[in-house]
Amino acid sequence: MVSLIMLSFINGYTQYILAGHHQPGNYFFDIIPDTTLIGPNTHIPPQPPATYQIDINGDKINDFELYSLGYWMNGGGGTEISIRAHYNHCQIALCCIDSCQNKIAKSLERNDSISKNLTWSNDTILYLSHTFWNIEPYSCYYNGFINNSLGNYLAVRLIDPTDTIYGWIKVTNVDWSAYTVQEFASNTHSFGIESQRNDLRVYPVPTNDFIKIESQMPISDLILYNQFGIEIMQKKLANMKTMIYLKDLKNGIYFIKCLMDDKIITQVSQLVKLHMINCNIC
Question: Which residue ranges form the domains of the chain, and what is each CATH number?
Fold first, then answer.
């Protein structure tokens, strides 16, 4: 069995967006007029929640939703305002975990940087505000959105092996089961993709067992993804040369992401395994 690796290279600079800002070429949506929603507070079974759908990058696919709902029964009840991710590649910045073990979305101020340096959650639900009470001596509440006169911002991102899109959602007047959503934006395809093949060298091609990687700058992190965007290998490095063994990999498309100082190099690698053919005349 022979392995052939076919390589192409893409690179770009570390991505970020500032809360409350957008640049030419970014996606920006201003909600006119500002939309205030109040979730129902009814006896179980509850009424449908008050939701607002967010298509953060303008591709006509809803990525997130704001969600508000209240309920009560038998002396207890609760309310929540949350943000929910629709897909696995949609992530929300995490603030903390409260005493009720609920995960809380981070509230940012205008001009705060939204980048990989935030704590990003893989959970599909993070809370902006919530309450819970019962006839027993137990209750908890949290409102991380102490309303800022300049607005509060949720940090979100869409992540895949070849690009990451960072964005923000401006939400104000978060109180009990009410919230106001005003605008949102993202740095759609802000990778600034350009070809710079001399930044990274990968060899030998073809190969059976391994590839060697050399760069002009020290590689701090190396991540290998499969064709479905699932991380299958990660290495912490501090040098300009490394080796990856491929003997146990299956046939498919692989992505190698290298972080070098302020650059992210993403390499698309196709590993093709060919069966040997026995014949008398070839």
Answer: 2-13+193-274 (2.60.40.3080), 17-186 (no CATH)
